[in-house]
Write a structure and sequence with these properties.
Blueprint (H helix, E strand, L loop, with lengths): L3 E4 L1 H10 L3 E7 L4 H14 L2 E5 L1 H7 L8 E5 L7 H11 L4 E5 L5 H14 L3 E5 L8 H6 L9 E4 L2 H10 L3 E5 L5 E2 L10 E5 L8 H6 L2 E4 L11 H19 L1
Parallel strand pairs: 2-3, 5-6, 5-10, 6-7, 8-10, 8-11, 9-11
Antiparallel strand pairs: 1-4, 2-4
């Protein structure tokens, strides 16, 4: 069975708290004790081996990732099914609030989107299996541990998934710089909704754009006419949260 790396204090802590299967944890010799003691205590309760090692070993395990002196080896990330995301909403007695990512390729963007999805109460994120970032150590680190709590579904065909969500009564709202409807004050966000965020460079694909029930745009008052994908997603997610709080 393949294994995955989780790096960083917050990511490892949340993985422990969420009950994810962790095989072993490594902590750098020079790591600050007040940051690592809670992790060591949680690991001991769960019967997980913790080993003190030279920081350079951690650098080799997760090259290029700011691990803060803590790295864990875990079971592969457990992706959810789309039905589980909808069931998550039903269980909470809430209208579905989903995020669909149309070929988001940068793992830092995926991590940031997962973090905001958790903060705004989204019921899950849906990504295509091809040409899309997967949940990796970089994603987990960027999400500050939110990857352990926000269900992520991987699907073969995003277009077919949109059709299925529509059958469930979910409105599909795409973000597009060429749209005419404003994102703010748009009543569409108060009901069952799936927000579509397009690729960092190309935006949404033509087929996905055509399948959206509504297209909205963020107002731009400067010289640059677009935002980073994760920033745009964050603005829209908080507008969904605001609209629902006003409604309730």
């Amino acid at each position: 069975m393949e294994e995955e790396w989780i790096a960083g204090k917050h990511s490892v802590t949340e993985a422990l708290r969420s009950g994810r299967t962790i095989n072993k944890i490594w902590i750098a010799d020079n790591a600050q004790k007040h940051l690592t003691l809670p992790i060591t205590a949680e690991a001991k309760k769960a019967g997980i081996i913790v080993q003190q090692v030279d920081k350079r070993k951690l650098d080799q395990m997760v090259p290029g990732i700011q691990h803060q002196g803590v790295v864990a080896q875990a079971a592969p990330f457990a992706y959810a099914e789309v039905e589980e995301l909808l069931a998550n909403a039903r269980h909470k007695g809430e209208e579905p609030f989903l995020i669909l990512l149309d070929e988001i390729e940068d793992p830092h963007n995926l991590g940031s989107i997962l973090r905001t999805a958790d903060c705004t109460g989204a019921h899950g994120v849906i990504v295509p299996k091809r040409r899309s970032a997967a949940v990796t150590a970089t994603v987990s680190k960027t999400s500050a541990g939110a990857a352990e709590y926000v269900p992520v579904a991987r699907v073969n065909n995003l277009g077919q998934t949109i059709d299925r969500l529509k059958e469930e009564g979910v409105w599909v709202v795409g973000t597009d710089v060429a749209a005419t409807d404003p994102v703010f004050g748009n009543g569409v966000f108060t009901g069952p909704v799936a927000i579509v965020i397009g690729n960092e460079n190309k935006g949404m694909g033509r087929l996905i754009r055509e399948k959206c029930d509504v297209l909205v745009k963020l107002p731009m008052a400067g010289q640059i006419n677009s935002l980073n994908a994760s920033v745009a997603a964050g603005v829209v997610m908080y507008e969904v949260l605001r609209g629902r709080q006003v409604r309730d």
